[in-house]
């Protein structure tokens, strides 16, 4: 099974309009999962979804 890799623009849209500069900063700080394909930075979709879910705050009951 092949993993779907997202581009920087796709991750920005998925995160609700986060700027590419912010994503690049997170990559350099290793705060977001990414994969290098040659010189390109790509983001495994399942890992990004897990990363988003791990940062979701549930409301208090």
* Multimeric status of the protein: single chain
Q: In one word, what is the shape?
A: globular
Number of helices: 3
What level of helicity do the residues show?
A: 40-55%
Radius of gyration: 12 Å
- Order of the strands making up the biggest sheet: 1-3-2
Order of helices and strands: EHHEEH
Mean pLDDT: 94
Distance between the termini: 39 Å
> Largest sheet, if any?
3 strands, antiparallel
**In percent terms, what proportion of residues is strand?**
15-25%
* Structural class based on helices, strands and sheet pairing: alpha+beta
Tell me how many strands there are: 3
Count of the domains: 1
- Low-pLDDT residue intervals, each spanning 5 or more residues: none
Structural write-up:
It is a single chain. The chain is an alpha+beta fold and 61 residues long. The protein has one domain. Helix content is 43%, strand content 16%. The protein has helices at 8-14, 20-28, 45-54, and strands spanning 5-6, 35-37, 40-44. Strands 1-3-2 form a three-stranded antiparallel beta sheet. Strand 2 and strand 3 (40-44) form a beta hairpin. The radius of gyration is 12 Å and the shape is globular. The mean pLDDT is 94.
Write the topology of this structure:
Elements: E1 5-6, H1 8-14, H2 20-28, E2 35-37, E3 40-44, H3 45-54
Antiparallel strand pairs: 1-3, 2-3
Protein traits:
61 residues; alpha+beta; 3 helices; three-stranded antiparallel beta sheet
Give a quick rundown of the structure.
The chain is α+β, with helices and mostly antiparallel strands. It is 43% helix and 16% strand. It has helices spanning 8-14, 20-28, 45-54; strands at 5-6, 35-37, 40-44.
């Amino acid at each position: 099974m092949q993993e779907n890799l997202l581009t920087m623009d796709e991750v920005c849209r998925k995160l609700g309009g986060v700027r590419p500069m912010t994503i690049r900063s997170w990559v350099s700080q290793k705060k977001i999962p990414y994969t290098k394909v040659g010189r390109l930075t790509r983001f495994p979709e399942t890992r990004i979804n897990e990363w988003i879910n791990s940062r979701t705050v549930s409301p208090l009951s």
